[in-house]
Amino acid sequence: MSGMPNAATSVPNAIPATLEWRDDTLYLLDQTRLPLEIVVERQACVEQVWKSIRELKVRGAPAIGVAGAYGLCVAMQDSRTESVESFRARLAERAAYLASARPTAVNLQWALERLHARLARQEDAADAAALYDALVDEATRIHAEDQALCEGIGRHGVALIRPGCGVLTHCNAGALATTGIGTATAPMYLAHRCGTRFRVYADETRPLLQGARLTAFELQRAGIDVTLLTDNMAAATMQRGLVDLVIVGTDRVAANGDFANKIGTLGVAILAKHFGIPLYVACPSSTLDLATRAGEGIVIEERASDEVTSFGARRTAPEGVAVRNPAFDITPHALVAGFITERGLVGPPFEHNLASLFS
Ligand code: MRU
């Protein structure tokens, strides 16, 4: 067992860091082993980084973006002695490869495009080593910015958490999904720091249990009052009057405010509307995709059927049964009360308000 101390100052120390870039090497916390084991893996090559993203060892839209940025640095380490031309050609090919690891979270594409744009500005680079240094510098900036974006979301969302309230969340949009204090959890961490008492209801989030394994783990470690629910308990919990607001994260927000998030979010949003509970979406600008007009333009990742036919290592369905396993769903903007962003709380009409704050 080993764990990296959390370098992001405001993340509670008891929560292991999602990733670290040290001595030109990328280290990732293997989130598939949580909550039972805290294991950190050195990423030896770009194929390993691709696999870590694909297998959800590192997951959550902002964390995938930062891991992808450092992953491209790992990919280019061997090309430092090549010509500038071959370095640039290889960069484009390696970036396309990394982007193919997961399609829905726009942060991965966004981070890789930022590295590409940075090198496009290095027209007068003396050699490939100088290009490599610029890549690492840009990846390090993306990493630092991610932490600041989380803090900004926290500042703009903290007032939503009133003393004594119940907050329901789905999946894990927490510290483990970012390199800071999370997105959906950022207002929670700040409210907790201010001494506000509140309770979080965490959906366990089938099929891969990010709510049970990750959200319950990190909030409990931070000393936040968290109660775990199976996904089918959310309706009854709302009906009992225990939930005052819902805060979720997102993998991609379209220009009209439709958003993709972990499968099951749509159901939670419909329930919240039924019970008159406001649903907020915590979202850094790196997750906005204003080039995609509406939710139907967002690609939804389909994952392997064995995630549904088994529970952990145990098979729970008959051999050969047909299975659907979309990893995300699209929630229409009509079910959203507001977006909590690093620049402020954005209410409807979203098409206009998101564009005027971010374009
Ligand atoms: O499949 P995952 O675990 O990567 O899904 C994560 C989510 O759906 C999160 O809610 C989303 O990425 C936002 S993370 C701040």
From TrEMBL:
Presence of the UniProt keyword Isomerase in the record: yes
Catalytic activity annotation: 5-(methylsulfanyl)-alpha-D-ribose 1-phosphate = 5-(methylsulfanyl)-D-ribulose 1-phosphate
**Catalytic center residues:** 251 (proton donor)
Documented EC number(s)? 5.3.1.23
Q: Which UniProt keywords apply?
A: Amino-acid biosynthesis, Isomerase, Methionine biosynthesis, Plasmid
Q: Per UniProt, what is one GO molecular function of this protein?
A: S-methyl-5-thioribose-1-phosphate isomerase activity
The protein depicted here goes by the name Methylthioribose-1-phosphate isomerase
State the organism named in the record: Gemmatirosa kalamazoonensis
